[in-house]
Amino acid sequence: MTAGRAWGITPTGPLHGDIEVAGSKNVITKLLVAALLGDSPTWIGNAPRIGDVEITASILRAVGAGVAVEGDSIAVDPSEVQNSRVPVRYSGLNRIPILMLGPLLWKLGEAFVPLVGGDVIGSRPVDYHLEGLRQLGAEIFLTDEGVEAKASHLHGARIRLPFPSVGATETLLLAAATAQGRTVLENAAVEPEVVELALFLQRMGAGIELQPDRRFVIEGKSALSGARQRIGGDRIEAFSYLIAGLVTEGTVRVSGCSQDRLVTAISTLRRMGANIEIEDEAIRVTPSTLSPISVHTSPHPGFMTDWQPALAVLFTQVPGMSLIHETVFEDRLGYVDTLREMGAEVELYDQCLGGAACRFHEGMWLHSAVLRGRTALVGSEIVMPDIRAAFAYVLAAAAASSPSVLFGVEQLERGYDQVSAKFRSLGLQIDELS
Ligand code: UD1
Question: Among this protein's residues, is 119 annotated catalytic?
Answer without folding.
Answer: yes
